[in-house]
Amino acid sequence: MTERTGTPAKERPSSAASVASSTIRMERLAKRYPMGDEVVHALDGIDFCVDEGEFVAIVGLSGSGKTTLMNIIGLLDVPDDGTYTLDGQDVALLADNELADLRNRSIGFVFQSFNLLGSLTALENVKLPLTYRGTRPREADATARRYLAKVGLEGRERHLPSQLSGGQQQRVAIARALVGEPRIILADEPTGALDSHTSVEIMELFKSLHREGQTVILITHNPDLAEQAERVVRIADGRLGASEHGHEGVRLAVCDTAGGNDAAPATAVARAAAEREGEAHATRANG
Ligand SMILES: Nc1ncnc2c1ncn2[C@@H]1O[C@H](COP(=O)(O)OP(=O)(O)OP(=O)(O)O)[C@@H](O)[C@H]1O
Ligand SMILES: [Mg+2]
């Protein structure tokens, strides 16, 4: 069963967002895969909330459902049951183009295998999300350079992925994830292909992004990495629970029950904000 270990609001780390609705809110989420006569319950009744500015690790063994969950959080896949609200939007109500727009605006992905385009330079890789959303080339160029510098890769703009170390490639991927200023960075085993020294550097980068207010969700099978997050939840057999690795004083609750079950007012506020952002985005793209 999913654990709920509610912690009084005053004991939670203060963040502006903790008074608003959760950035991510999942209720009774399920994902099943039919396999011949059997059904794999990849996700089995997930209740999970993430507030703006949190650094949450999801830790679990191979096959526990981590990537399935990440794909749903990242709007790459849809659940069979339950509800998922991202930035105040019930994603089940969105058309494909609206989902793509929300994904582009809200989520920055970081993968174990970097997923860079080998024929593009570091700068061109980082620019891609901006190009997709119609940012003017000069602005996209300047922004991408700024994010490459932010991840410590000034001077590497014209290198191809094959001319960079693994850690540097992952930094390019993180810059690419950040460049669109997404609400959430979603990282699935981001250090899985890196040596331990480089892994530490990449974790330090995530921690510094979190200190700047970035919401980060880290998915890993490695408890040592997970422990470095602000909050840790464990997934086993498609079910989430609070982990014993949570830091003292940090809330372990999977969902904020104190936030109220009636998320409608906050949802309306978030939707209005998203609409304003959408209008501003359209103005930028057209102007
Ligand atoms: N497309 C699919 N078809 C059938 N079963 C699937 C599919 N994708 C995942 N599964 C099953 O769902 C369960 C969860 O898989 P998932 O990939 O989410 O695990 P994971 O925690 O990411 O594992 P790993 O640490 O090995 O990446 C597994 O039992 C897996 O076999
Ligand atoms: Mg996986």
Automatic annotation (TrEMBL):
<feature type="region of interest" description="Disordered">
    <location>
        <begin position="1"/>
        <end position="21"/>
    </location>
</feature>
<dbReference type="InterPro" id="IPR003593">
    <property type="entry name" value="AAA+_ATPase"/>
</dbReference>
<dbReference type="GO" id="GO:0005886">
    <property type="term" value="C:plasma membrane"/>
</dbReference>
<keyword id="KW-0813">Transport</keyword>
<dbReference type="InterPro" id="IPR027417">
    <property type="entry name" value="P-loop_NTPase"/>
</dbReference>
<dbReference type="GO" id="GO:0016887">
    <property type="term" value="F:ATP hydrolysis activity"/>
</dbReference>
<dbReference type="GO" id="GO:0022857">
    <property type="term" value="F:transmembrane transporter activity"/>
</dbReference>
<keyword id="KW-0547">Nucleotide-binding</keyword>
<dbReference type="GO" id="GO:0098796">
    <property type="term" value="C:membrane protein complex"/>
</dbReference>
<dbReference type="InterPro" id="IPR003439">
    <property type="entry name" value="ABC_transporter-like_ATP-bd"/>
</dbReference>
<dbReference type="Pfam" id="PF00005">
    <property type="entry name" value="ABC_tran"/>
</dbReference>
<dbReference type="InterPro" id="IPR015854">
    <property type="entry name" value="ABC_transpr_LolD-like"/>
</dbReference>
<protein>
    <submittedName>
        <fullName>ABC transporter ATP-binding protein</fullName>
    </submittedName>
</protein>
<dbReference type="InterPro" id="IPR017911">
    <property type="entry name" value="MacB-like_ATP-bd"/>
</dbReference>
<keyword id="KW-0067">ATP-binding</keyword>
<feature type="domain" description="ABC transporter">
    <location>
        <begin position="24"/>
        <end position="262"/>
    </location>
</feature>
<dbReference type="GO" id="GO:0005524">
    <property type="term" value="F:ATP binding"/>
</dbReference>
<dbReference type="InterPro" id="IPR017871">
    <property type="entry name" value="ABC_transporter-like_CS"/>
</dbReference>
<feature type="compositionally biased region" description="Basic and acidic residues">
    <location>
        <begin position="1"/>
        <end position="13"/>
    </location>
</feature>
